[in-house]
Amino acid sequence: MHKPPPQKTLLALLIGLTALWGGFLFRVGMPPSGVRAAPGAAAISGLAPAATQPIPTATIPPTRRIHMPMLIKPGFRAPIELLEAWTGDDRGTRRSAFLPGASMQHTALIVNHTSITRTVELAWTQVGPCGKRELFAGRIKAGPGEGEYPIDANSPDCTGIFTSTLDASYGVYTATLSLNLVVNNPSLVIVEGGGVDGNSQGFDKCTVPSVAQMQAWWDSSPYSVFNLYLGGVSFGCTDPRLNPLWLNAVAAQGWTFIPTWVGPQAPCSRYSHRMSYNLAEAYQQGRIEADAAQQAAGQLGLMGDLVIYYDLESYSGASQSCRDAALAFLRGWAERLRQRGYKAGAYGAPCTSYILDWAQIVPPLDSVWIAHWYRQSYDPQAQVWDAPCLDIDPHRNSLWASHQRLKQYAGDHIESWGGLGLRIDSDVLDGLAVWLPTEALTQSIPAPAAGLPAPDGGLNAQSSPRAMGLLSPGQGWVLLAERLLRTEDGGARWQDITPARGAGIRLLAGAFLDAIHGWVLVEAVPGERSQAGLPEGMVAELAVYRTQDGGQSWETVLLPTNPSASDPLVGLPVAGYLDFLDPHTGWVALRLPSGSSFSLGRLFATQDGGLTWEERSLPLGGPAEFMDALRGWSAGGPSGDQLFQTPDGGRSWQPVSLPFPRPPAPGQALVGRPRFTPNGQVLVPVTLAEPDPRFLLFSSADGGLTWRLASSLELAPHATPGASLTFDLTPAGGWRLAVPASSAFGLEGRGGSVLWRSPGPGEARAGGGLQPVMVGSGPSLPGGVLALDFVDDMSAWALYQEGVCRGAKPQPGKTLPPGAVALRCEARAGLLGTLDGGLSWQAIALPGQ
How far, in Å, CA of 473 to CA of 844, rounded? Predict the structure, then answer.
């Protein structure tokens, strides 16, 4: 074969990047104080630093650029490849977040596929808050094989996000890439809440919201603290968004954080990863987890003072040996964190994680995070005291009493602030959190035109609806706080048909098949059970009430929850769901209390209308929707992206894989509740959040054996849905979808929500039959639509919740300046009705409104 002359040889550099942040960004270092080659690698020569040029403070830069050389002919291998580049500390440990002026390295991994040494020119430049500078310019001698080329450096003296660019050339061909790193100030531990401005409010999610979503809620919500899951073997989510750039950007908005580690759980629990029963081994495991948690915090960019909370989930009914092992583990956790100079906290349920046991640790944990779900949504009056099983005589409100408490007071629910709905847990703080000081901090929220909100915040008022059902154009029911009301005239008048009342009684769920047959799920705590028609005892109970005369009379049956059993899944639910196919066949699904990293549930079935119940199984904590007595589905999970199917009435479950056009990013496919058409189809709505926001509707005509994409609606390019869009099915099989106007294509910047519907038989179908039809010409609903219920093509109810705030959010660690108005927020829920298919909606007055 003829060998071409050297000047005609095809040269190329192929860039192979190992992604640390979601598959695109990898790290590069800062101005080198010296250059050295790894053993076996050729030397790097040439260094020409440039003068600093001031530039504005950086925000998150766009994805790195790669300019490739000319295309490679098939079968041709370039002689030189840049395989990878990264930054690390002065010991060579990879990381991408640094303190100002810290010793560090940036390293290139290059492979020479030939048998002779090649000369490659490298030039590193950097742009960031310190200005623009040249980091390195010179040549390397790349010997045969792979070689690492680390450069000793110091991180910049100023903080922010930095973009570094590498130009690599071999002959006349050049490859360019840009990548990012973060320089942070040392983190600080501060007391959140407890000052003259009152307690702080926070929220948590298994996967972090986007930077845009966090900004929207900083601007519009009462929350200023976010739970930050650092990881751990029991962490239930994959979170590609969480990286040092995200943390830096969100901290600059003003947020403070609750760093949390989710490691092995109690040895008697059913979790996959458990502690040892051996006390010495459990103690050592706690120390190991403390080291891992601190390292994860540092990798993320928290590199100063820290408090880290250990997530110890419920393990109720435990033996003393199990409780002793968990206590030994937490003792090791706390001692090791303190040896490293940090503060130690823990999260758990006061009764079923045995928080009172934790008081035996000497010295005590620096702060505790109590999971006591006594509300169903935001409560501005929430407080950290009076936790059951902890604040009992003689310790009533005396343990961890000096600004050392956080409380998770409302479990899994959707809240809408500023037109953005997120599925969250709500927290109140009078205890320790972590602040990452940055230059830019938002201080206040623009005041709306209306006056100050009501002190109760609205959602927990007696006039706030939280569930509803429309049975006919005139008949319907609503759960209004802890009352069950029904109407026969479209809401003009209401009748109270509540089956049980009392201070310790909660109505968890309601369901009506028709105007006659209905069920209500009720929780009754000790001291109130006699008012609920239940026998008195030492523990709370769950009961199902059923009516066969439209609520004029009720029958009561206890659910067999067996609260005294040695079962880690025993515990009162935070939410309940009822699903009935006919007057005889139905299910009760329960969501159990847990951290956001878990989703735990129980399922009970009846075949006699609720007179007797049998426990089945449930793969997650959420509703179960049944097509018939055997086939059912359940959607949700910690990230909201899971779907399971049962072929046997809930006795067993299998995961379902939907045929997405492209695989969605982890945690970005938000699966809604399945629905069933009259002709036997299963419909599953899915909202894709990133990077290509859109609504997808999948259908199955064979009971879930096969699936196809039935409809698709493109959302606005910058839409940031935080929960599955609200979807409903009409009795005829048509469907409706509520989309916030901020997410609707072409309607960005407008308030409210837009209603979409499936196309009718005679309508043209755009997009190959996949495109739905907008109802009207714009928003006809308010923002924050939580539920739709169409009883025909024209008649429907809509349940919505909208929040608004005014006043100032104090900067982290500070009180409000003199004369500033403290932040006050109101979240109101309401009921609307339509008789024209959704073209117009009218408010339905409820008692007390």
Answer: 13
